[in-house]
Specification:
About 25% of the residues lie in helices and about 25% in strands. It is of the alpha+beta class.
């Protein structure tokens, strides 16, 4: 089975039958988040416009494929797609969007690429929130948007999928981010190699690196894994690759030099990002503590600007 990323020009090819009904889709549709039920004659746009400020993630049920396309293709739509399933008729949106989501995703993605040599910089590019879809029998069955991604300049090298996905949660349920990470690996048939989950609050920013490849031997004794989506082969389901990176502060007045930073550096394995072996002096990408202090400071300043 070959799966390619669907965008404005490509289509996703998936197997028929039960193989398309992943536990990750069920988990996303069952999330315990604010929920709105839409009747056949109700206006989806009106319902979305009435979502209260601060909801961030809202689940809307009863959304037919036709209604989804109407909302998704409208230039005046409010909110951003988080996930949609035509099978369950569930639409999950991020609404309202905030500058902190954009900063946490784009700030990290651009920092990673800025530090590359010219040759490597030409091999990869940070992308914004682009939609990827599952297509079966010519119809969309599920769709999602990440907050950001790192994609190869030669997109055909990975069937159109970006090797690295970035998902951001601002004071929202971590379960939603984990379920979305699982969906990315399954929908891409593991063409996506790394999913970075950034969970942020006014006092803490946490970055988790999720992969499907086996953990290093040195991490065997401290394997934080999820049991929600176990598969027969233990090294084929997603898990956190430690250490978890955390930046925290005691209060809003804590200066950056007193932030508590643990789990550095954030390491992105070269082969996962570029899908080839490194040629010396090429090596893994490391995101160091100095940048992360500034990254957190700017994120928390963004909070002040919008409050």
């Amino acid at each position: 089975m070959t799966r390619t990323a669907s965008g404005s020009t490509a289509a996703t090819s998936v197997a028929s039958g039960s193989e398309t009904k992943h536990n990750s889709i069920t988990a996303l549709c069952a999330l315990h988040i604010p929920t709105i039920k839409i009747g056949p004659q109700e206006d989806l746009f009106i319902a979305i416009n009435n979502i209260q400020q601060g909801a961030f993630l809202t689940k809307i049920t009863g959304i037919t494929l036709e209604k989804f396309h109407q909302w998704n293709e409208s230039e005046s739509r409010r909110g951003r797609l988080f996930f949609y399933s035509s099978e369950y008729k569930v639409l999950i949106i991020k609404c309202p969007l905030s500058g902190i989501h954009e900063y946490l995703s784009n700030g990290l993605g651009h920092h990673i690429t800025r530090g590359l040599s010219e040759n490597l910089y030409n091999e990869i590019k940070p992308l914004g929130s682009r939609q990827f879809s599952m297509i079966q029998g010519g119809n969309l069955t599920a769709a999602g948007r990440p907050d950001g991604s790192l994609a190869l300049a030669d997109t055909e090298k990975n069937n159109g999928w970006p090797p690295v996905i970035i998902e951001v949660g601002w004071s929202q349920n971590r379960t939603a981010l984990i379920a979305k990470a699982h969906w990315w690996f399954r929908v891409s048939n593991n063409a996506i190699k790394i999913v970075l989950l950034i969970k942020a609050t006014p006092l803490q920013i946490q970055i988790e690196k999720w992969k499907t490849s086996p953990l290093p031997d040195s991490s065997a004794a401290r394997r934080p894994i999820t049991r929600l989506y176990q598969r027969e082969a233990a090294n084929e389901y997603p898990r956190i690759h430690p250490p978890i990176l955390t930046i925290s502060r005691a209060s809003a007045s804590t200066p950056p030099n007193e932030y508590r930073v643990t789990g550095t550096p954030l390491r992105l394995e070269f082969r996962d990002v570029f899908l080839r072996n490194p040629v010396p002096p090429e090596g893994d990408i490391l995101v160091e503590e100095r940048f992360l202090r500034r990254y957190a400071e700017n994120a928390w300043q963004e909070i002040l600007r919008r409050t």
